[in-house]
Design goal:
By secondary structure, the chain is an alpha+beta fold. A hairpin with a 5-residue loop joins strand 3 and strand 4. The radius of gyration is 32 Å and the shape is rod-shaped. The mean pLDDT is 85.
Length: 205
């Protein structure tokens, strides 16, 4: 009889231990499931779907700090392309310069006024000269704010009789501003100046 009671007590202990282990396993599984659901939700929030030409394209949201150098380089490139890519048409020149001036402070406006007063744009129009610029490289210093940059570019003046290739080097600083349709990167170039703009070669057709 005592042996039977002892067996029942041992079995009860085993069942009790098994129950505790089962409860613990259920808690662990539940916690893991909750954690995974939060992780999945966070990943989904970083996914953006853009509808373009009837197709859904997937994009990913990221912290701006990860993309600041990329945005700065694109901002500088856009500014130089708008400011220096010109055709012999007053409306085209004005439209491009207006786009460029949204991306920089009064230093760019001063440079534009100086070129206008010297007759530079009038000469482009009267001579049927197109001007194009290609940004070759951009040097950045991200250690201090506002961010310093130096831009190295190649400029071409295209005439009916010849094409003049120039080297263009500019520098300036960038600070953060609010994003807008006219300034999508939310950056503003300040204290901008041209360090070099000299002829490299002349090609004739």
């Amino acid at each position: 009889m005592f042996t039977q009671l002892k067996n029942i007590d041992t079995a009860f202990k085993h069942i009790k231990l098994f129950s505790y282990l089962l409860i613990l396993a259920c808690l662990l599984i539940s916690c893991f499931a909750i954690y995974q659901s939060y992780q999945s939700s966070a990943r989904d929030r970083n996914h953006i779907y853009i509808l373009a030409n009837g197709k859904a394209l997937e994009a990913f949201a990221a912290d701006r700090r990860d993309n600041v150098p990329v945005e700065i380089r694109d901002h500088i490139k856009m500014f130089h392309q708008h400011f220096f890519t010109l055709d012999p048409d007053e409306k085209v020149i004005q439209a491009n310069i207006t786009k460029a001036l949204y991306l920089a402070d009064g230093s760019a406006k001063t440079a534009y006024n100086n070129l206008k007063e010297s007759g530079y744009f009038a000469n482009l129009i009267s001579g049927n000269i197109s001007q194009q610029v290609e940004v070759d490289s951009i040097s950045l210093n991200m250690d201090r704010y506002p961010y310093y940059f130096k831009c190295f570019a190649t400029e071409q003046l295209i005439r009916a009789t010849s094409t003049v290739t120039r080297s263009l080097v500019t520098q300036g600083y960038l600070r953060n501003v609010s994003r807008s349709d006219n300034n999508p990167h939310g950056l503003l170039i300040q204290n901008w100046e041209t360090l070099e703009n000299k002829d490299l070669k002349t090609n004739t057709p």
